[in-house]
Amino acid sequence: MKWLLLLSLVALSQCRVTKVSLKKGKSLRQNLKEHGLLKDFLRNHPYNVASKYFPNLSNEFASEPLTNYMDMEYYGTISIGTPPQEFSVLFDTGSSNLWVPSVYCSSTSCTNHNKFNPSDSSTYEATNESLSIQYGSGSMTGFLAYDTVQIGGIVDTKQIFGLSETEPGTAFEYSEFDGILGLAFPSIASSGATPVFDNMMNEGLVSQDLFSVYLSSDEQSGSFVMFGGIDSSYYSGSLNWIPLSAETYWEITMDSITMNGETIACSSGCQAIIDTGTSLLAGPSTGISNIESYIGASDGTVRISCSAMSSLPNIVFNINGIEFPVPASAYIIDSGSCSSGFESIDVPTSSGELWILGDIFIRQYYVVFDRANNQVALASVA
């Protein structure tokens, strides 16, 4: 009995809940502006946010438009290898691969970021597999390998990850993060690589097969992603559970979008993806036009009077029979001048309209991503 108790305690000690702090860094837009490069970047890198979810809109590779990070970036620190080599990564629920720059990268983007050196790790295992990911504003190419990845207190051994050899363009060069850690489903992972959280679950490294996210509105601190647990002190009321409609991205069915009780978009129901890797709220151009007309945003520039913010209504996302309001203080971006936090995407889908609930939405709600039951939960932040 004594030995059984000891073994039970050992097993429990290996199942962890770990919280990784996320830093809200200087935006890519701000960095480019400070270097006098913003105008050229916007002219030379047109993109379609929908190409992240529909790669055929870009090319045959998985796509993730990094220009979504231009207005906000949330990133945290992980380590790879033995002894550990540290990297800042974007924790992205809209993609599934982990990759970081490598010492073999010849691009300018790699010169001012941390680079993984395989020869410095005793636990590194090479493969012959290549990795290519096309982004809306550039791309990365490299190869896959295995090594120990440490995230907070969790040690994830034999994790497959990408090492970049090329990172063309300026998006990576002026971003404050080194790489990306995808938290979506294995079905969308490039080159069939097992995502980090799947490896954690497979190895029994988390006490529950879920993770949760809190994005603070504060300038620097407070945000986190928690693996294996839920911190109830960060939300008020109860968690509202919503079943997934697809096991690719964290996709759910939305009932409608309303303002002042009037349906202005998604009138017949639509699909929505909850994505920490997208800054804004994105949807079909017709719905976005309705919203921007309603709030008085100028055509083409989506500029809006900052003084109007206090009188604008909530936009309400009706999901699974529950109302999730987002106030004007969240959906209007004030960076000296004010603009709409909405963005148009138009994609052909068999399920109708597609909306992306990015960081503007997530900052209002504590989100639980439950892989055990294929569902998400939302609760108002405390």
TrEMBL record:
Gene Ontology MF annotations: aspartic-type endopeptidase activity
First and last residue of the signal peptide: 1-15
SUPFAM superfamilies: Acid proteases
Keywords of the record: Aspartyl protease, Digestion, Disulfide bond, Hydrolase, Protease, Signal
Any one Gene Ontology BP term: digestion
EC numbers, comma separated: 3.4.23.1
Domain Peptidase A1, chain residue ranges per copy: 74-379
SS bond list: C105-C110, C266-C270
Active site (UniProt): D92, D275
A Pfam entry, by short name: A1_Propeptide
Gene3D superfamilies: 6.10.140.60, Acid Proteases (2.40.70.10)
Keyword Signal in annotation: yes
Function: Shows particularly broad specificity; although bonds involving phenylalanine and leucine are preferred, many others are also cleaved to some extent.
Family: Belongs to the peptidase A1 family.
Protein name per the record: pepsin A
